[in-house]
Design brief:
five-stranded mixed sheet, 256 residues, 27% strand, 2 domains, 11 strands, Nucleotidyltransferase, domain 5, globular, alpha/beta
């Protein structure tokens, strides 16, 4: 089999990953700008393929999880012109073997379902919670083979951006973890850092604790770009899988 190009198209960034029948290869992150043209996407992807020593004709399919509808036709047009391959969208062209019990199933983002599918295929525990640290912070609850529902909370970066835009004197928030122990800040920058990184970790721990009343002993998986930051401070996150959506796209494509 040839190589596939996986897309995790989110509201802030689009993550791309080359994959083959052996698994995932190198990943890249580009800003999501639906106003860009298909040529813009094609030229950027050509540069990535050149860096990886991969010919455009080696790509047999683009496999996509997208929550940005205006981006979808651009990716399709790019794939046809630059790669001459088909596009398969998760949940539409590519079946995910997980039951969606949402009241309005069409409202569930493809990334949520792909993450749930990936977690279900990876872990044996009956009850799972997938926490995705993206533009929003989401908690997806899985029981057996069913996505039961979840929570949508503010995202780390979007919260920091909102705070910066609404205040005149607060500096940009540093989201690095200097110490695993919470302490009160002695400068504004330090106060922001401690409040954000420990605050979000405590938010997840508290939510998992409350969700456990409905979902007994859940195994909690963290994914998303900022997952490594918060996972090291959380007492309830069991495993870190930053590329869970990519893994799910790969599984769905190669197991179809």
């Amino acid at each position: 089999m040839g190589k596939t190009l996986l897309f995790d198209a989110g509201n802030t960034n689009t993550k791309l990953c080359l994959a083959d029948d052996q698994g995932l290869n190198e990943c890249y992150t580009l800003p999501t700008r639906p106003a860009n043209t298909d040529d813009d996407w094609g030229l950027k992807i050509e540069s990535i393929l050149l860096r990886e020593g991969v010919e455009p004709t080696d790509i047999e399919a683009c496999v996509i999880s997208s929550v940005v509808p205006p981006l979808d036709p651009l990716i399709q047009s790019m794939a046809a012109r630059f790669l001459e391959c088909e596009c398969l969208f998760a949940g539409r062209d590519l079946t995910l073997d997980i039951d969606n019990e949402y009241v309005h199933p069409e409202q569930v983002g493809a990334d949520v379902l792909v993450g749930c599918y990936s977690a279900r295929m990876t872990y044996d525990e009956k009850n799972l919670i997938v926490v995705d640290f993206g533009t929003a912070t989401t908690c997806a609850c899985i029981q057996g083979n069913a996505f039961k529902g979840g929570l949508i909370c503010p995202g780390l970066l979007s919260s920091a951006s909102a705070l910066a835009s609404g205040t005149a004197k607060l500096p940009k928030v540093d989201l690095t973890v200097a110490s695993p122990t919470l302490h009160w800040g002695q400068s504004t920058a330090e106060c922001l850092n401690q409040g954000f990184v420990f605050g979000f970790a405590s938010m997840i721990d508290g939510l998992v604790e409350k969700l456990s009343a409905q979902l007994k002993n859940p195994f909690v998986v963290a994914t998303g770009g900022l997952a490594p930051t918060i996972a090291q401070l959380s007492e309830r996150i069991n495993e870190l899988r930053p590329d869970l959506v990519m893994e799910g796209l790969w599984m769905a494509y190669y197991n179809r």
